[in-house]
């Protein structure tokens, strides 16, 4: 019997990676390939009143200029497809794409960008999600600044009866926590190479984490069926969720379709940090009802997520956070209100954990405070509340193959911490 | 003054999309020399899916690992995969590969049953051979099978797909939503030293343990655990694009100001381990867990800071400025 599963088999492509035999997208050089640079919005919010690219188009060395007018299909993409490839009119964040130039090299393309004449009527932006929620706040979006879930302006999770839980509790513990805007900073920044291949199809070398997911979005933008796009990828130099969103493929593809020459669009590290989607910042408010013995009997959580100028995966991230923000605990009464707010910032989307890392960051400070409030060792609070097989989570899923207690026992052992006997006797297999 | 403290954190992580409905497919074909091509559409983003999917295919087909190539190069040839995200590839693509290998084995058995003139139920595919159970003279190497199948005008391709279930919406009133493929778990213990004059935090020791169902490959787990730990330290102590949030003033745009951890920031003592509670639906019991490796170090460190200096820093990252302000507020 072959038994490779469980064995420390060497990485299939590992030697290739560390000896630079792996070919990444930026390694690809095609004959006659042109380079793309993108004109982005210099203001946080505004309306484009006039755009004139003719001087850039006439510049020697420039092969083409594209704007919103050059999108043959839907000028929108994203998990919630609300972000234009090039904005035709409304600017919702500093860095939003307006036009792209393809030229013989990147310097020439940069020079050409300066020749694009643009008249923007600047408007008052809003950055603070709490201010954005107030009546009369500047509108990031015509439909309002708060995302509408199928449950209204909050993602509602209602499990048990939190008021009853608070009434039964010996102690109430409250806390507010915030997490910051994070960048994925993958080793390989965003890059795309596009050309029309020998069968007259659009071929794109991509750094996408999700070939089929993005292929679907690109068919809508290019107005092409799936089999007219050859989407080439599969090996990526890190992504951490930044490559769950398209950043270069749509621009490179549109340019190749227009000028029918090979093009490369790659981010500098500065462009990568400034213009790609981010892990959005959050504010968490927790209120716990706790028994003296350490049992958490009610947990109320209100979260506010700042998703920037476009939805991207913001509402999805709030959904996923809401499922697990109450932690891996058998709490009989849980109430979660998750709110997703638009502000005039670069769009926030997925990053490693889809909001769960943020929820854990908050819930674990709160749970440590619970232990402090009742004078218990935090291990005790984690152990007695930890999910066992058959427990229900906040959205009523049934926990199976639970393993938190087993992980905690091993971590304590490796940290040289002697747990009390009654905790060591516990198991996820039952209470 | 330098003060030391210990903090802990625990967490859980699901595999796959919230609400489910994120399938993966796989395809395995038998070549004329008895080796195999495994194709799927998952992206190898550094996590090592090419490696573990081959391990699963080799085990299921019971053939040497080096006899299986893996390719995921484009959407012309790669079967569908929702994508490499949400710690889903081990679980979804792993199950799809097992299904494809089982399908190919069934097809090899049916072909061999005709050749050996027996029932497919009596044919075994094992140890890189195809043979009739209990009849040693009726046996072919996989190389012989590959040649006879392909040069004989047949094409044996195993296909498989997996989804944990149909996609689900949240109930608008209660939020009920039960589609979770698997839940992995973890625990982190951090020991820190806080300089109360400068606010600088040194992580002296970090212990991380993850419960992963079944570790497909311990080397790759080690990579995830240590890499995730460093990302978690950055989340806890340094990483912030908007230092004056919600203002966009001084938003940072390069890696001089956006401080990610490097090898130089590794705690002097860094320990990782895994424990295994097999999941009934996971490939060989595996769960998806890798994103969680970055979730636990941050809160463990902030809890350790509180343990060291007696005041809470409740905003991530716990920069020296925030620590000094919290100390100042406590003194006032």
Give a short summary of the structure.
With 431 residues, chain A is α+β, with helices and mostly antiparallel strands. Chain A is 26% helix and 23% strand. Chain B has 332 residues and is an alpha+beta fold.
The outline of chain B comes out as elongated
What is the N-to-C succession of helices and strands of chain A?
HEEHEEEHEHEHEEEHEHEHEEEHEEHHHH
Which percent range describes the beta-strand content of chain A? 15-25%
Q: State the end-to-end distance of chain A.
A: 38 Å
Low-confidence stretches of chain A: none
Distance between the termini of chain B: 19 Å
- Output the radius of gyration of chain A: 25 Å
Structural class of chain B: alpha+beta
Q: How much β-strand is present in the residues of chain B? A: 15-25%
Q: Please, what is the average pLDDT of chain B? A: 97
The poorly predicted ranges of chain B are none
Major beta sheet of chain A, specifics? 7 strands, mixed
Overview of the structural elements:
The complex is a heterodimer of chains A (431) and B (332). Chain A is an alpha+beta fold and 431 residues long. Chain A contains 13 helices and 17 strands. In chain A, 26% of the residues lie in helices and 23% in strands. In chain A, a hairpin with a 5-residue loop joins strand 9 and strand 10. Chain A is globular and about 80 Å long. The mean pLDDT of chain A is 97. Chain B is α+β, with helices and mostly antiparallel strands and 332 residues long. Chain B has six helices and eleven strands. Chain B has helices spanning 49-61, 89-116, 142-151, 218-237, 297-309, 320-331, and strands at residues 2-14, 24-30, 36-40, 68-71, 123-126, 129-132, 135-141, 157-162, 183-195, 201-211, 269-275. The longest helix of chain B is centred in the N-terminal third of the chain and has 28 residues, at 89-116. Chain B is elongated and about 90 Å long. The mean pLDDT of chain B is 97. Chains A and B meet through strand 7, strand 8, helix 6, strand 11 and helix 8 of A and strand 1, helix 1, strand 9, strand 10 and helix 4 of B.
